[in-house]
Design goal:
about 400 residues; alpha/beta; 9-stranded mixed sheet; two-stranded antiparallel sheet
Length: about 400
Amino acid sequence: MSSGTLSRNRKVAVAGVALSDCGRVDEATPYALHAQAARRALADSGLDRSAIDGFASAGLGTLAPIEVAEYLGLRPTWVDSTSVGGATWEVMAAHAADAIAAGRADAVLLVYGSTARADIKARRRTADLSFGARGPLQFEAPYGHTLIAKYAMAARRHMHQYGTTLEQLARIAVQARANAATNPDAMYRAPITVDEVLSGPMIADPFTKLHCCIRSDGGCAVLLVAGDRVPDMAKPPVWVLGSGTSASHTTMSEWDDFTVSPAAVSGRLAFERAGVRPSEIDLAEIYDAFTYMTLVTLEDLGFCAKGEGGAFVGTGRLLRDGELPVNTDGGGLAACHPGMRGLFLLVEAVRQLRGEAGPDRQVRKPGGGLPQLAVASGTGGWFCSSGTVVLGRG
């Protein structure tokens, strides 16, 4: 069927999700990881490649997503290459869902792949990853502000303003590692303690090594389709119920409040559009480049009040069998982080909602039922952007 011929305001479903090989993948190129993830997602969906008329990708090549689509043998009539850092994939998912609902596309494939770890190991850098001293950043570059230092400053502000402690932040890393323990795809599965987090090598005060995400290789893919394609799908649908996006700042001096992330806006919009409340969510997949990112995003999504994040995360609540399972695959702190991790959040959320996470790490509601609602929230830059997507079963 051709795009644009169906009625508008169509429902949007996730038809297929997949990971490529992840962790340490020295032999693969980023293009190969894109292709592997795309093939697996198509197989997961049960749909033929010819069904794809929309394509979204970022982070690879000069003309992304055209180069990647060509590599995959696709000729899409709807494309997106929005790049806003780690939030890219939730923002792209929102764009794709809007396009499908409006009848501008029927099936949109989102795909990502990166050899971020292998590139460092082999000392092969395909691009200049420094931000340089142009545009707004020229006013901060002379002071040596690195990306991690910007997160560290924000964490220090939260600690000063609300009494958040390093021990509370460390418990986020401990719980992420515990969730990764039963994930065979996770890069690091051995348990860690709060003391080990606190005593590790300092990276940027107050962050020691284990407060920071890992660096891995890997890719993944998500296929979104119009609701009328659900009968053709191999598995029950997971529905896109609502989404929200937000842009904040690039220059730290233009950030109104270091303790409030743009997820406060994207989350509110996503929940309003989905017609659900944070209290109804069964699990959350949150971008966690650093422990503070998890804490402040939970606050800003409305799972706890501003300033109460430290107490909220310090009770085991984020564990797979906790009150609010968060980053059930281990997140960027333990499972994988090959650059822009946002698409991995959607893959894990869908697998959990489908009940496909496996007997050792599947989230269950009280009474043993499958989770019904999940939220995926990605953050880009140094709290520069945010995208939030609410997903649901049935």
